[in-house]
Specification:
This is ABC transporter ATP-binding protein. Residues 6-234 form the ABC transporter domain. Strand 6 (155-159), helix 6 (167-182) and strand 7 form a beta-alpha-beta unit. Among the domains are: 6-82 and 153-223, Rossmann fold (3-Layer(aba) Sandwich), CATH 3.40.50.300; 227-282, Alpha-Beta Plaits (2-Layer Sandwich), CATH 3.30.70. 31% of the residues lie in helices and 28% in strands. It has 303 residues and is an alpha/beta fold. It is elongated, with a radius of gyration of 23 Å.
Length: 303
């Protein structure tokens, strides 16, 4: 029995550029997503994130390869209400109120959640009578979220969901997402806010040039791709750059910061072979990992 929420195999999507030459926006992705996973989808502009999301949602068909959502073609799962999506733009009528917008879309579902429930989940209860055109960009993103959960979906796809939100609104949005996760929903979100991925995702999938360049638990991806730093007060005359495994050296006052791929070995050497004191080790951030894995990827037209 297939227990995957998403299964993609050899997924390729080709387009033509302005000169008529073909290029692969998605270039052979294989991906399996299980029930209840919370995945942060990261990558620079043009890496293929949005194209991948479009194929998961059945908005575009792969050039080659296969993709199934809940063991069926994506559009079939969409029609059954098993997938909800929050996209960056589109789909809202400015002259309708927030409540009327949700009621209108609810009429297209077989068994939608009650209006009051959806308004509460999206933190829109106090805006129910406001016209959509009078809502801020962040408030309109919350309306899109409300529409995405109307069918009580098992899978939520979020493409840059906090675009246009200030810091407070982003915090409230991710509180709402935490509630969705506790309900057991599978959540996949693409974001440019590295901190969001680090704080919320349990698994990171990094994409570069249409391929997956890293895939694993958030902490493992961060630690595997990011160099660590060892900071210490070194004895006078010690050549820090010549220490084993040192990548770069920086100083601030009497402290020296050493970047290394093997902090344990460097720390052990400093403590046993030198008179270094006041030693500390820190791990790079997920942003460091993102830059390390994708900085060599040339930018191309965003899809």
């Amino acid at each position: 029995m297939n227990t995957n929420v998403i299964r993609a195999d050899g997924l390729v999507k080709s387009f033509k550029d302005g000169s008529g030459r073909s290029f692969d926006a998605v270039a052979g992705i294989g991906l399996e997503v299980g029930p209840g996973e919370i995945i942060g989808l990261l990558g620079p502009n043009g890496a293929g994130k949005s194209t991948l999301i479009d194929m998961v949602l059945g908005l575009t068909r792969p050039t080659r390869g296969t993709i199934e959502v809940f063991g069926a073609e994506p559009l079939r799962s969409i029609k059954r209400g098993r997938i909800g999506a929050v996209l960056q733009t589109g789909g809202l009528l400015p002259d309708l109120t927030v409540a009327d917008t949700i009621r209108m879309i609810a009429a297209t579902h077989r068994d939608p959640l009650p209006l009051e429930t959806v308004l509460a989940q999206a933190d829109l209860t106090h805006l129910a009578r406001r016209r959509v055109g009078k809502c801020s960009g962040g408030e309109q993103q919350r309306i899109r979220f409300a529409l995405a959960v109307l069918s009580n979906p098992e899978l939520l796809i979020l493409d840059e969901p906090t675009t246009g939100m200030d810091a407070g609104a982003r915090h409230a949005f991710w509180d709402a997402m935490a509630d969705q996760a506790r309900e057991g929903r599978t959540i996949i979100f693409a974001t440019h806010y590295i901190e969001e991925a680090q704080n919320f995702a349990r698994r990171i999938v990094m994409v570069g040039r249409g391929r997956i360049v890293a895939d694993g638990p958030t902490e493992e991806v961060r630690e595997r791709a990011s160099a660590r730093t060892v900071t210490a007060v070194l004895p006078e005359g010690l050549d820090a750059a010549a220490l084993p495994g040192v990548i770069s050296v920086g100083t601030s006052g009497d402290r020296t910061t050493l970047t290394t791929a093997d902090s344990d070995a460097l720390a052990r050497h400093l403590l046993t072979e030198t008179a270094a004191t006041d030693l500390s080790i820190s791990t790079g951030s997920l942003e460091d990992a993102f830059l390390a894995l994708t900085s060599s990827e040339p930018a191309k037209e965003q899809l």
